[in-house]
Recover the amino acids of this structure.
């Protein structure tokens, strides 16, 4: 599947300034692997030492928080948009 | 003078300079302001603080005011230094002998948010911004719009479209750009995280959040100063993102480090609505994992399903030996009424959450009767009138004649329900 990944500002230093990246992947985990292959250094910033999503990183597949779905196992369909967004405060 | 040195990631410790950036470039962890505490020692004193204005800015040395900022350039509507009042009648109702209320309903836009916004926009202006922005459940919207209006900045304020009518209008009245978004707060916040990346605005809760969050320390500073430079035994605070509670704890830590108070243990306890209790749940189930939830509560000002400072609130509560609890919508409204009837203080739903949790913790024996306890009442009841609309009203409605009144009074006395 071809998936569009929206890259947040802090991560653009790793993507050469690109704000969107297209990758081939079937799950969120594969999206991260594909990002890492294209832009080495991305994965360690999104995943912790145990290979899980870092606790201040939110990933959305077509506006659905993957923590409500299957986490890194969450499937992505052809043409999906994956957004990586840092957690924010507020009120 | 400014003692600010830079920003530092709370997760991985990487440091960066003063800028409008809120997450660590490396691990996305939240950035926090670093201060030169050694340089403060001996210079930041009770006297230096007392010489300041009766606002949050009396603690300017402990706030992230950028080097070279002229006090005249502060974005300041007079937030802070709100009353700390004893609450003997509420205390008697709950079995607490030394209960106090931090009445933050009397801020310029009637909530504690004026503290954080004043600090955030002062930093933003010093960083060169002329446009402010925020995602808000209401209180922050009011504060950002008002502070922008009052300082000649412009503001874009994003709110969920289903907010209480009073909150929408009270945000719109300041003449800034109010954007109602179809979705809940977390949807609005996610949109804003992306908007912040595209537009050069100072989003108080996004890119200038490290400065913003520090403003809540002033609640802790004021409580200590108003108790005669003593720390309370216990503070109960509402939790949305978890930032306020975390920063009250930080404020006490700083005062202790600077020897502005005698070293003594304190506890912080956190209050959430059951319909949005990701932090309290992580504490109560012992997992330590803050799982996002979809909020469903009348306490909309606390309805953040994905709380950014949840882990730090857990750390603060567990380190100090405090507690967390959550309460139902019915308990929240009961508590709003109890607070109003015993102390004459009308709080919004967040205050109802705090008092209801206070009540629960007291009943469970997790607050000892003799503990000097402070409950933070963070916003005014007029913003959430809907919450009490079907509970309270006139004792009776009559024609304007003395006989009508006498008859109604007599009926009412017979029913033995004076008032309602």
């Amino acid at each position: 599947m071809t998936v569009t990944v929206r890259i947040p500002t802090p991560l653009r230093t790793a993507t050469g300034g690109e704000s969107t990246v297209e990758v081939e992947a079937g799950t969120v985990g594969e999206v991260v692997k594909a990002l890492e292959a294209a832009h080495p250094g991305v994965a360690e910033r999104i995943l912790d030492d145990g290979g899980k999503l870092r606790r201040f990183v939110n990933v959305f597949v077509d506006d659905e928080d993957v923590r409500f779905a299957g986490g890194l196992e969450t499937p992505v369909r052809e043409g999906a948009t994956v957004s990586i967004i840092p957690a924010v405060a507020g009120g | 003078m400014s003692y600010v040195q830079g920003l530092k990631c709370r997760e991985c410790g990487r440091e960066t300079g003063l800028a409008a950036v809120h997450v660590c470039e490396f691990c996305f962890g939240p950035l926090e302001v670093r201060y030169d505490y050694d340089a403060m020692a001996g210079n930041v004193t009770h006297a230096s603080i007392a010489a300041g204005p009766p606002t949050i800015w009396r603690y300017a040395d402990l706030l992230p005011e950028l080097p070279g900022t002229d006090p005249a350039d502060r974005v300041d509507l007079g937030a802070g230094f709100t009353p700390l009042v004893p609450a003997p009648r509420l205390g008697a109702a709950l079995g607490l002998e030394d209960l106090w209320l931090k009445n933050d309903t009397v801020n310029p836009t009637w909530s504690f948010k004026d503290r954080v916004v004043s600090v955030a926009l002062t930093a933003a202006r010093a960083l060169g911004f002329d446009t402010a922005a925020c995602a808000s459940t209401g209180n922050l919207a009011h504060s950002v719009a008002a502070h922008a209006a009052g300082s000649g900045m412009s503001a874009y304020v994003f709110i969920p479209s289903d907010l209480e009518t009073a909150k929408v209008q009270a945000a719109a009245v300041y003449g800034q750009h109010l954007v109602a978004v179809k979705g809940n707060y977390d949807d609005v916040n996610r949109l804003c995280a992306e908007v912040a990346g595209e537009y050069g605005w100072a989003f108080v809760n996004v890119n200038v959040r490290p400065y913003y969050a520090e403003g809540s320390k002033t609640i802790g500073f004021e409580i200590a100063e108003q108790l005669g430079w003593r720390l309370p035994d216990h503070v109960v605070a509402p939790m949305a993102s978890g930032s306020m509670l975390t920063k009250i704890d930080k404020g006490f830590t700083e005062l202790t480090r600077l020897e502005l108070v005698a070293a003594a243990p304190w506890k912080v306890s956190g209050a959430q609505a059951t319909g949005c209790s990701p932090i309290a749940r992580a504490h109560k189930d012992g997992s330590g994992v803050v799982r996002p939830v979809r909020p469903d509560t009348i306490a909309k000002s606390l309805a953040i399903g994905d709380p950014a400072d949840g882990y730090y609130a857990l750390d603060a509560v567990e380190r100090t030996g405090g507690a967390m609890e959550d309460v139902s919508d019915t308990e929240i409204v009961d508590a709003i009424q109890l607070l109003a009837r015993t102390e004459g203080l009308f709080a919004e739903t967040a205050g109802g959450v705090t008092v209801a949790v206070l009540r629960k913790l007291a009943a469970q024996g997790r607050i000892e009767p003799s503990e000097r306890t402070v409950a933070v009442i963070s916003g005014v009841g007029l913003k959430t009138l809907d919450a009490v609309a079907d509970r309270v009203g006139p004792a009776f409605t009559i024609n304007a004649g003395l006989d009508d009144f006498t008859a109604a009074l007599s009926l009412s006395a017979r029913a033995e329900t004076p008032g309602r």
Remarks:
- The mean pLDDT of chain B is 94.
- The first helix of chain B runs from residue 37 to 40.
- Chain B touches chain A at residues 11, 21-30, 113, 134-137, 139-140, 185, 187, 189-190, 192-194, 197, 205-206, 209, 212-213, 240-241, 243, 290-292, 294, 301-302, 304, 306, 308-309, 311 (CB under 8 Å).
- The longest strand of chain B covers residues 154-160.
